[in-house]
């Protein structure tokens, strides 16, 4: 089979090579799938650079998420059959930027019939992260105001749609006019271009001085610091990640004085501590997809040959919407 391989660490454009490798096999509790669609995720860029918390041995194939068709079952797999269309996460070091991938049964879910391959491929990591943040780490209520940073990104775009599905007013902060248009298409009630506008006074004006009830922050740095200036009394700031490159140092005295909560989310830990919660989340996401309340909005559909350039652009911050690669 053919797969994109990282033989040395660096930028995706420089280190990815499309190589012939041995076919994979499914061990006990695993599925072998033919990849139908693979979305680009920022962890894929970090994997190539050697900056992700998971550091597979060289050489490896990146790609953390996919939609695929089951072609073989390992011993003991009972929830799926050959020919099923599935979504979930791939097993590194044999990631999903390849013709075949291996998935653990526990990390595999039925693909919603209402979503095509590209849409379904982007349902797991971003939407599970958004759902756990908004409905488990806190409880976003109808009528509340949700402020989403990097609202045109993978997890941010999911949070926008999940916020609207929950009945919240959603403010999306993005970088650039193209991303602003994409965010409006997601359904955001207000879109702020951070390149030309300061979101703090705009959020205060939009909320009548109250501020945002919930802030969804996958960026960190200045995005977090400024969010503390427009968080509502008894609001909640959700710390999702640090895509901006700077880990903030919270002023806990400010959180005390203003009565807001700082809440962390590491979605991947639920695989170790509460797998049932992940399973239940997929059921809910499927229900929302079937009802038309959420639908991954694919910015670009590219071929598998475009993986290095696509991941390179994602790392540069120049992509708009989800990038999905198909064989």
TrEMBL record:
Lineage, broadest ranks: Bacteria, Bacillati, Actinomycetota, Actinomycetes, Mycobacteriales
Species, as recorded: Rhodococcus tukisamuensis
Pfam families associated with the record: ADH_N (PF08240), ADH_zinc_N (PF00107)
Protein name per Swiss-Prot or TrEMBL: NADPH2:quinone reductase
SUPFAM superfamilies: GroES-like (SSF50129), NAD(P)-binding Rossmann-fold domains (SSF51735)
GO molecular function: oxidoreductase activity; zinc ion binding
Residues of the Enoyl reductase (ER) domain: 11-325
CDD domains (alphabetical): QOR1
InterPro entries referenced in this protein's UniProt entry, alphabetically: ADH-like_C (IPR013149), ADH-like_N (IPR013154), ER (IPR020843), GroES-like_sf (IPR011032), NAD(P)-bd_dom_sf (IPR036291), Quin_OxRdtase/zeta-crystal_CS (IPR002364), Zn-ADH-like_protein (IPR051397)
